[in-house]
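Question (not urgent): is this output format expected?
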Amino acid sequence: MNIIKPSFTIENIDGEQILQNIEKYGRICYKSESKITSTSAKVFIANLIRNGHESVLEHEKVTVVIVCDRGVSHEIVRHRIGSYSQECVSGETKVRKNLTIKALYNREVHGTPQDKTHNRTISLRSVNKNGTIIPNKFNSVFYAGKKKVYKVITKLGYELKCTANHRFLTNTGDYIKLKSLVVGSKVMVNGRPCLLSISDKSLKHEYIKNCLSTEEISNKYSAPQSTVRRRLKSLGVFVKRLNDKNKEKYNKNHTDKSFEKMRRTIKNQYKNGRIVWNKDIKEYENESVKKQANSLRLNHHNNGFGKENSCWNGGPKGHVEAQQIKAAIKFCELCRSKKNLEVHHKDGNEENNLEENLIKVCCSCHNLLHHGWHIGIKAIADKITSIEYVGKEDVYDIEMKTPFHNYVANGFITHNSTRYVNYNKREIEVIEPLFFEENMFKYGIWKKAMEACESAYNELIRKGSTPQEARSVLPNSLKTEIAVTYNLREWRHFFKLRTSKKAHPQMREITIPMLKQFKTLIPIVFDDINSD
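Got this back:
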């Protein structure tokens, strides 16, 4: 358990520029733009506040990231004229095949009654604790303002634009913020679908009890034979050539038995003196034999090798050439599998066999590269290849229904707006309450209670509870991080309420030093608020 103090960080702001902007907007109301000077802003804004004309302050906003306990964060979000966010994605993010999160939000907020009803009935995608992609409903979708966003690209080609605080499911099972991930980090994405729609038990029955071959099973269930073989291998029951009705088709050369059968057949055909029509006839004796001989000289493979052969067409092309170029690679470059390897052309042009356009992959990854994320049913690990800042954009987030607090965004398994962290894999962080600092006896009681909560949480995890189920025993002192954005008028209202002597002591512990910083960064606007 890690005990920490509450804190806050005010996003970079230019106080003087904010004052100038407010004056410009305010003087439009009074038609007095001509009176703007380099020093007129402070006097003008002081008069606005004194006369109660604070609506002009709503044109400017400030964001603060606050680290506090859950009790304080619950009080903060009661101020409804503001934006609260821990993680958000760009509006163009797809949450279904042809549906973006922005369109989902517009239907919810600005749509017709039919649109809102449809939002209640559609399913998005979540991942369960077994890593399987499942349908899941959502509680709400909300707009979180305009924020700095970064584009994340993976080796499989997935792309997502999101804020630095957005959490991704990683291969360790934790949801990690983008700002803590780097190029090379592995995140979970929506995998390819299973093409064989049959249970493992039924597949075993068909193969072992019904003695069907892999070819017969693939025909019966309309699935590729390679998929059937992979499933049987994963179940540990696959035996090469088991149940095959014509085992000879797998042999380049005949077995001794089949070879003798072939010889007997040929001998029987000529038993009564039948001979081939051109037996012992020389080419100069027969025009047909002459043509046949000339054709063999020109076209038969033994008239030379490589470029010396009359059939030479410039060497291997397409996938044959691609396989030769990547022959030295003995594993899938995406998942490291060594089975069922193929070569994928990144640009889709099979004639473009430049080495940088080729990637050696297993059959599963190859199928994934040729299909959209929306068809996957399994979460798989993918490596981040690029994280790039792209500017400020409108961002949105979704609150999914319990118990699966995540959703699939552009193929990424991402955390939704309801906190979901597996504390069993790291220390629980709690906020130290200031009112116990001077009383060691009370502080000791509080600390023991926190340790007991942590112990109960870990025990529930060990007994098989999911993190979201187990966190119900975590204390109110649990550390929470929240980004808060208000316009200046709402910040004035916030400070008047939350710095007063009637406010909770832990709230005042944060808001009083925050107000002092606001007074320094943005003069005049907050000078009349007294926190004593």
